[in-house]
Amino acid sequence: MNLTRFTRRATNAVRIGSVTIGGGHPIAVQSMTNTDTKDTEASVAQIERIDRAGGHIVRLTAQGQREGENLQNIVRRLREDRFDTAIVADIHFLPEIAATAARYVDKVRINPGNYRAAHGEFEALIEQCRQRGVALRIGVNHGSLAKRIFDRYGDTPEGMVVSAMEFLRVCKERDFDQVVVSMKSSNTRVMVAAYRLLVEAMEHEAMHYPIHLGVTEAGNGLEGRIKSAVGIGALLADGIGDTIRVSLTEAPENEIPVARLLVDHFSHRTGEFSVKHPERYSPTEYRRRSHVAVPVVHDEPTEGFRILEALSENPTAELRAAILNMDSNEPVVVKCRYNEPSLETLAVKAAADLGPLLLDGLADGIRIDAPAFDDAQLREIELMILQAARVRFSHTEYIACPSCGRTLYDIEKTLAEIKSRTSHLKNLRIGVMGCIVNGPGEMADADYGYVGAAPGRITLYKGCEIVERNIPQEEALDRLIDLIKANGDWREAE
Predict the structure, then answer these.
(1) Helix (H) or strand (E) holding 47
(2) pLDDT in tens, 361-401
(3) For residue 24, what are the β-bridge partners?
(4) CA distance 172 to 202
């Protein structure tokens, strides 16, 4: 009989300015600005708000030479204001900007899709980072893999891991250990599988780099928080993760309390549980235990289901073990009680605890017991958790980026307008992306896409194909509605 227990993955320590992650240090929370990086005043003010909220690592986009050079002014002003916030530069498309940014910041994040491993530029960046004491993040994004990786592996978790490992091997060969790695996706199932496969690959090659967790383009409101909690919670429950970012299409300082809540929720996990049938569970290969087609929620029939309630402080591990100890494949409803007075806190905790069991195909229904809220509120949260775990879709899903200095329009306002016109539709995914840097690739799961093309201009997609290019933004929402209707996808939920 196997044992399952909560054990945090051992990693080496990485220093990012005033913050150290990994090596047994507390999990750090972070965010990213959505100001223009050329605007020193606005960027500094936003970084300081994020820091005051508890996010002591802040990333800024540096998509061009002027943005890269202005990082010097931003860092100088922060230090003059007595903020020791760790500053990270986010690099896309232009590897040479990484060399500029590394002169001023505490960490540089690169997308492997923009480099070739072992072709000079990356090795030069490693040496520059080593000399200044700058950390490096290998940030792989689902939907933006290099063509040579995509052509061989497709847009898969396996391809994401291959992409990361190429660069991690170069770091290991050069004895550079100040490296963090991430495997982000807006699809929680892809995201969780990619991180778990990465950990397996790194352990096989004796790599112990810290991991940055995040679900990209999670959206806003309760839905965005729940989606983030399902994906991040599944990995924190495995003991994986050294720093996290909750990506919301809101003011970036709003991300910090959610991230902090997740960290605190997993900080005291205890318990050891016996597992009788470990062979029935694969953390990296999705498969359903039972033949239930539509997982159930509040007030739906549960005849023939076994209801398992968590009683310990480690509900995910306890319920997983209970399911894997069953001798039959009868359907299971997982249940947990919460005494939270806040609906948001309840939603985040329940999503982090119970969502992973749905995501892994172990559970077939969910029950939240929370006396402070009525059945209708609880049912809606349960449905959101099932949708975030990608086992039951009950309303429109929005793949919406949190915005950054590359964003070409007011994405928070626009997302609200799109939701007001489309949230009642059935089985539809709409991508709302601020620019073309990540937009087309990272909304690959979407049925339709609304992407910033230039100031005041929007490009509309059906799937990954451009349908209308550079149309005026004031016309774009109506044209999106017309596009959905013309393709027969204007189906209202019952």
Answers:
(1) helix 40-53
(2) 999 999 999 999 999 999 999 999 999 999 998 888 888 77
(3) none
(4) 11
DSSP string, 220-287: SHHHHHHHHHHHHHHHHHTT--SEE----SS-GGGHHHHHHHHHHHTTT---EEEES-GGG--SSS--
CA distance 140 to 150: 13
Task: Cite the beta strand spans of 65-126 per DSSP E.
Answer: 86-91, 107-110
What is the CA 320 to chain-centroid distance, rounded?
23
pLDDT in tens, 141-165: 887 787 888 888 888 999 999 999 9
Please report the beta strands in 152-195, taking only residues with DSSP state E, as ranges in sequence order. 179-184
pLDDT greater at residue 468 or residue 229? 229
CA distances from 391 to 188, 358, 365, 446, 465 (A): 11, 7, 10, 16, 26
487 vs 129 pLDDT, higher one: 129
Per-residue pLDDT tens for 407-453? 767 888 888 898 889 988 878 888 888 776 665 666 677 889 888 88
Nearest alpha-carbon partner for 81 in 133, 46, 53: 46
Q: What is the pLDDT of residues 334-366, one digit of tens each?
A: 999 999 999 999 999 999 999 999 999 999 999
Other Cβ atoms within 10 Å of 203 Cβ, number:
12
| CB-based burial label for 235 (10 Å; 0-12, 13-18, 19+) | buried
Instruction: Give me the pLDDT at residue 397, please.
Output: 85
In terms of Cα–Cα distance, which of 414, 446, 450 is closest to 429?
A: 446
Amino acid at 436: I
Share of the chain above pLDDT 90, in %: 64
| Alpha helix stretches (DSSP H) within 389-464 | 411-422, 439-442
Tokens of 242: 């050294």
Other residues' Cβ atoms within 10 Å of the Cβ of residue 476: 24
Radius of gyration (C-alpha) of the chain in whole angstroms:
22
Nearest to 314 by CA among 257, 367, 363, 352: 352
- CA end-to-end span of the chain, whole Å? 46
- Amino acid identity of residue 239, one-letter, is G
Segment 92-118 mean pLDDT: 86
Report phi then psi at 361, rounded to 5: 75, 15
Which of 96-99's residues contact partners 24+ apart within 8 Å by CB, and which partners?
96/121, 97/62, 97/63, 97/64, 97/65, 97/67, 97/68, 98/125, 99/124, 99/125, 99/128
